[in-house]
Amino acid sequence: MIHQLPSTSETLWLRLLGRGKVQQRAIEELINLSPDNPLKSVILEILYTLQKNLEVNQPSTNTEESELIMRLAPLYQEDRARAIQEGEIRGKIEGKREEALSLIQRLLTKKIGNITPELITTIAQLNLESLERLAEDLIDFTNQTDLENWLKNTMS
Fold it and tell me: How far is Cα 20 from Cα 23, in angstroms, rounded to an integer?
């Protein structure tokens, strides 16, 4: 039945469970998917979970299942390593952004006094690059209007 499925991305994970040439072609398709293709991560996660369930429920897997697991294990590990690295990078960027936001709020308070909660919310929506520009430009601010004008120019 699996061998009758069309070769589409929607059937890829099912075809991986097939046998012989159907499975081999599906593995090649999976290998050739771009590393940032979300389908690749989802399929590898499903297959990894299936493998773990099979190990628990049927400790002795057959040769064909073992070969599938051995071929897909490096792909899964590579995908997990990439996801961890991306998460670390995002975490570092978010950490820098939070630090910049905190520093800017303190500097603005010192430079022009208390600012409205609406302006704080608007500033909190800026990306790291814009926050860095704001940190440089706020040196020239003398009042809240300067900040409002800067934000209007940046947001437009």
Answer: 6
Q: Give me the phi and psi of 142, to 5 degrees please.
A: -120, -15
109, two tokens: 């308070």
Q: Is 142 helix (H, G, I), strand (E, B) or coil?
A: coil
* AA letter at 13: W
Helix (H) / strand (E) element for 148: namely helix 144-155
DSSP 25-59: HHHHHHHHS-TT-HHHHHHHHHHHHHHHHHHHH-S
pLDDT at residue 55 in the model: 67
Rounded Cα distance between 16 and 42, Å, is: 13
List, for residues 81-122, the tens digit of each pLDDT value.
Answer: 888 999 999 999 999 999 999 999 999 999 999 999 999 999
Where is 91: in which H helix or E strand?
helix 63-112
Burial of 30 (0-12, 13-18, 19+ CB in 10 A): buried
